[in-house]
Design goal:
It is built from 14 helices and 12 strands. By secondary structure, the chain is α+β, with helices and mostly antiparallel strands. The protein has 3 domains: 4-247 and 360-381, no CATH class; 269-308, no CATH class; 399-460, no CATH class. The chain has a 5-stranded antiparallel β-sheet with strand order 4-5-6-7-8, with helices on one face. The chain has a 3-stranded antiparallel β-sheet with strand order 3-2-9. It has a two-stranded antiparallel ribbon with strand order 1-12. Strand 6 (172-176) and strand 7 form a beta hairpin.
Length: 461
């Protein structure tokens, strides 16, 4: 265990690192949540109506990209191929999976809900974390945003050497290392040591979730600005789904602003008069709203006319084109960004989302490994070994017709003789709890059938 002074020194250093990273990640969050800076073409002393138009011109495409990806990621079970080979004993139902206690900790921490925030943060920022700590009655699993947790890694990419977490709700800070968890409070602006708790795991119980594996991410080349006058320049902003879309988001906002400005100043025909000037604002407003203008003085010296209206089709088509470009680069179905979905058959919809499905599958692979790592920590804390071949079960979210999917599963069972029970988990919308209930019901039905068969045999004898 670290001494009090050593723990405080480590926490102060990591807090400084977290503050530096926070400045970068706040830019990403602003873009993600639709609070992008105004286009650089708008001067600081612009009129109130111009700034109002800029505010309502934010068409937040980035949030749709993150949501579309995260909504296809949902873990609803844990299984080990070795445990599935266990057969029920004679006269007994299906035995409990050895990993059931580990999965109950997941359920007890309400991770069916918590995983959504974890996946969104990992997709948006490029990195998120899971902290697993001892608790009562069981281990505590706590997803953490990189804006609130930073980790320092050494030669082992799986387990950090040190990690520091800020907990705003608890108003404290936690430092993690391979031997214990150290708690700090705040006194003014300084950290104050409060105590330490050993965990006996041999590693810091922090698991990292990455949006995509990039072997050069830890030693990348510096880059310039990312399309915003307020965006910093660190290379870490290249990770995740938000940073690569910043320039396109700025382009969409600028086009939308130009559209609003054209609507406000030139979309309607404006009339003009030469030789007549209204005496006050009231007379000017009356003339502007009148269908018929009359002049008493020198009508022969007054000329009337009107300006042509500004066509808006170019702005609209430009915005749609940029959205389609953003959909292509982010592998997001274009109809989710543009709203153009007209009588598409199930097969056409599946083809349109093929690239998106591949992207989700890649995230399932990476996040799945991190989930399994987190659950291995849970197993270590409760004394249940989690085998290396254990894997989480992902809910199917692909765009396929339900009837076609069930028909395909039926053919697998009939033509390839795949056990029916092994196909239940592949039915869209079915959770691991549903599969467990079905297995128990089938085992109970088989037991009743055996009992009835035995009784019928005795009666015939």
């Amino acid at each position: 265990m670290l001494t009090e002074s050593a723990a405080l020194e480590a926490a102060v250093g990591l807090r400084r690192t977290l503050q530096d990273e926070r400045g970068q990640l706040d830019v990403i969050r602003a873009y993600w949540k639709g609070k992008q800076p105004f286009p650089a073409t708008i001067p600081e002393d612009a009129p109130v109506e111009v700034r109002a138009m800029a505010r309502v011109s934010r068409i937040n495409v980035i949030d749709l990209i993150v949501q579309s990806l995260a909504q296809g990621l949902f873990v609803d079970g844990l299984r080990s191929p070795a445990s599935e080979l266990t057969s029920p004993a004679e006269g007994e139902g299906v035995p409990e999976d050895p990993l059931a206690p580990v999965w109950r900790v997941w359920q007890g921490n309400r991770m069916d809900r918590g995983q959504n925030g974890l996946h969104r943060a990992a997709c948006a920022y490029g990195t998120a974390y899971m902290a697993i700590t001892p608790g009562d009655p069981g281990p505590v699993m706590r997803p953490a945003s990189p804006r609130l947790l930073t980790a320092q890694y050494g030669a082992d990419p799986d387990w950090p050497v040190l990690a520091l977490e800020k907990r705003p709700a608890a108003r404290d800070w936690l430092l993690y290392d391979s031997e214990g968890i150290y708690q700090f409070g705040m006194d003014g602006g300084d950290l104050v040591f409060r105590g330490a708790t050993p965990h006996e795991l041999g590693y810091a119980p922090i698991v990292r979730y990455r949006d995509a594996e990039d072997l050069d991410l830890d030693d990348d080349i510096p880059v310039g600005g990312l399309g915003s006058r307020h965006a910093p320049e660190p290379c870490t902003l290249l990770a995740g789904q938000v940073a690569p879309m910043m320039s396109l988001q700025d382009a969409i906002n600028l086009t939308s602003f130009s559209l609003k400005a054209a609507e406000w100043y030139g979309a309607f025909r404006q009339r003009w008069a030469i030789g007549w000037t209204p005496s006050d604002r009231t007379e000017k407003m009356k003339a502007a709203s009148s269908q018929l203008w009359t002049f008493e003085d020198d009508p022969e010296n007054i000329k009337l006319g009107e300006f042509s209206d500004t066509p808006l089709d170019g702005f609209l088509s430009s915005r749609i084109s940029t959205m389609r470009f953003a959909a292509t680069l982010s592998q997001t179905p274009v109809h989710e960004l543009s709203g153009e979905l007209i009588n598409m058959a199930a097969e056409a919809l599946a083809a349109a989302e093929a690239g998106h499905d591949r992207k989700i599958k890649e995230r399932k692979t990476g996040f799945g490994e991190s989930h399994e790592q987190s659950l291995s920590v849970v197993g270590a804390l409760i004394g249940v070994p989690v085998p290396v071949d254990a894997e989480v079960i992902w809910q199917d979210s692909s765009a396929r017709a339900f009837a076609a999917t069930v028909d395909g599963l039926g053919k697998l069972a009939q033509m390839l003789e795949v056990p029916v029970e092994e196909l239940w988990a592949k039915i869209p919308g079915v959770t691991q709890q549903d599969v467990d209930r079905w297995r128990d019901a089938k085992a109970a039905a088989d037991l009743v059938a055996k009992l009835n068969g035995a009784l019928d045999g005795d009666e015939s004898a």
